[in-house]
Amino acid sequence: MTTTIAPVPPAAARTRHAGRRRTRSSARTVLAIVLLCFMLFPVYWMFNISLQATGGTLVSTFLPTDPSLEGYRLAIEDQGKNLVTSLIIAVGTVILTLVVAAPAAYALAQFRFRWINWALLAILICQMIPGIVIANALYTLYENLGLLNTIPGLIIANSANAIPFGVLIMRSFMLGVPSSIVEAARVDGAGLVRSFLSIVVPISRNSLITVGLFTFLWAWSDFLFALTLTTKGDVVPVTLGIYTYLGQHVSNWSAVMATAMLASVPAIILLVIAQKYIAAGATGGALK
């Protein structure tokens, strides 16, 4: 019996092959950088306009020649309260969504009943309902319950929109949580709630952070519920504030763009901090 040994490619061929790989990699990197600059250019232009001294026009030089922070001063003075309102609504929405969605996701992941598939179908249908339909239905209900023009009302509305998404994401991750770990905790004397909080929640940290981050971004950028469920101007999230601010200060674009930049800061910070958890939480359920 003879053994055939594959010929080893010559050094010149290996060098050419490695060179082609480096060329393709460099071309992809350059293309990615160009696309990134193209996508981030509106953000840069918004920042550029926010630093203009006059702010009376959207036409400006590519670089701010005489930067001024007057637009930011006006934005904080006029929209600071609205930014705080949006922050309270977004944080409250995250807390309520996780409190409701996490136990529901774990129940749907661990229980083995025939109606589970129907429950998942109902959740998917809830995700398909247009937001304007939910907002109109909530308006009549809120008017009867006295929740119009209130922060709790907006928190509940945004949570109702985020909970189905949170259940689906966390359930796919919690399907991989071994039931034996929870059973061992129960044998050691832990109750259902303690077992869930001490075992399941730490293991599912990535999915919780993923759902919490997306929920925060949705609540922070919500405009539909803010416009529909607030009528008196007592509670004004920053999205609605920018909408009304634009009409009042169309002659001062630096203040408008400064408000938009300030509204973008929380989202940018959270995305930079939690990006690795987002990737792990979004793919964890598929890998388990």
List its traits.
single chain; MetI-like fold
CATH architecture: Orthogonal Bundle
Please give the count of helices: 11
Major sheet: size, sense and barrel closure?
none
Listing every helix as H and every strand as E from the N terminus to the C terminus, the arrangement reads: HHHHHHHHHHH
Radius of gyration: 26 Å
> In one word, what is the shape?
flat
User: What is the arithmetic mean of pLDDT?
Assistant: 81
Helical content class: over 70%
How many domains? The number is 1
Per the CATH scheme, the topology name is MetI-like fold
Task: Name the structural class.
Answer: mainly alpha
Could you describe the 3D structure shown?
It is a single chain. With 288 residues, the chain is mainly α. It has a single domain, classed as MetI-like fold, CATH 1.10.3720.10. It is built from eleven helices and no strands. Helix 2 runs antiparallel to helix 10 (238-248), helix 2 runs parallel beside helix 11 and helix 3 (116-128) packs across helix 5 (151-174). The radius of gyration is 26 Å and the shape is flat. The chain starts with 10 loop residues before the first helix and ends with a helix. Mean pLDDT is 81; it is low at 281-288.
How is this fold's topology laid out?
Blueprint (H helix, E strand, L loop, with lengths): L10 H40 L19 H41 L5 H13 L2 H15 L5 H24 L4 H9 L4 H12 L1 H16 L3 H6 L8 H11 L4 H35 L1
Helix pairs in contact: 1-11, 2-5, 2-8, 2-10, 2-11, 3-5, 5-8, 5-11, 6-7, 8-11, 10-11
